[in-house]
Amino acid sequence: MQFLASIPSPPISFFMVGPFKIHFYALCILTGMILAIWLADRRLVSRGATSGLALDIALWTIPIAVVGARIFHVLTHSGDYFYPGADLTAVLRIWEGGIAIYGGLIGGAIGAWIGSNRAGIKFWSFADAVAPGILLAQAIGRWGNYFNQELFGFETTLPWGLEIDPDNPAFPPGLPADTLFHPTFLYESIWSLIGVAILLSLDKRLNLRWGTMFGAYLIYYSLGRLITENLRIDPSDIILGLRTNVWSAILGVLVGALIIYWQKRQHPGPEASVYKANALDSRSE
After folding, report:
1. Measured on CA atoms in the order 130, 131, 134, 139, is the torsion positive or negative?
2. Are 211 and 217 in contact (CB under 8 A)?
3. What domain count does the chain have?
4. Which of 147, 170, 173, 278 has the least CB density, counted as fewest CB within 10 Å?
5. Is 43 annotated as a binding residue?
6. Tens digit of pLDDT for each residue in 87-121?
7. Is residue 2 part of a domain?
8. Would you say 140 and 28 are in contact if contact means Cβ atoms under 8 Å apart?
9. Is residue 233 packed enough to be buried (19+ CB in 10 Å), middle (13-18) or exposed (0-12)?
10. Could you tell me the Gene Ontology terms of the biological process aspect for this record (predicted)?
11. Cα–Cα distance between 175 and 83 in angstroms, integer?
């Protein structure tokens, strides 16, 4: 008995609440953010921080991360937004989909640095605390792509192939209407969920501190992204024969390894506190 012949795509991507249009994409992103903050806060509290600091830092991190994610996406998919007769307001319509995780990481790092300094927390301590939560947020956020029927992979005959509406603008021209595609959103979601368990287990065994947990996150996520990105067929700028985000993933692995190497050399001992020295002094007064 065959239980699964394909994965159907949802017939709707939003619902109405009075005059407001609520997009499932936005709900997935928001749910992921909430859980990431919750997990980061628990991890910071377990290391001696005051409850609620993760939210304080997130108020800086998330807005700047969203801006960075959108800018990175637009720049690496410029052909989708800049062409003769293009509606340039589409650049701002983020609720329709189109954010880049690596751009979000760059923007988020800037926001986290600002927020951590204001909260008196070491930047790398917060980065380590939030790293598993970022993966959790990515696992949930990818389901937004499912509701938008976007960012799928090559055609496939596998029983978990994804159905895409043939009238979807992203449906490749010339293919039969019943063509199935690799559900790259699902691959990345599963990879990220497994990564959450791996990172938490590594932290329990190895006590990853001084940014090494964040470095491990970058390596793990980027290795998975190398696979899924090479399966995807959505338009992307190509540099030296590779999609932009393939280069981003390669850079992510290298940066993650460099962070681990450098931080271990600079901080061979255990982390005494997540608080900066001046913050500890002010707390003791």
Report:
1. negative
2. no
3. 1
4. 173
5. no
6. 777 787 776 667 788 899 999 999 999 999 999 99
7. no
8. yes
9. middle
10. lipoprotein biosynthetic process
11. 26
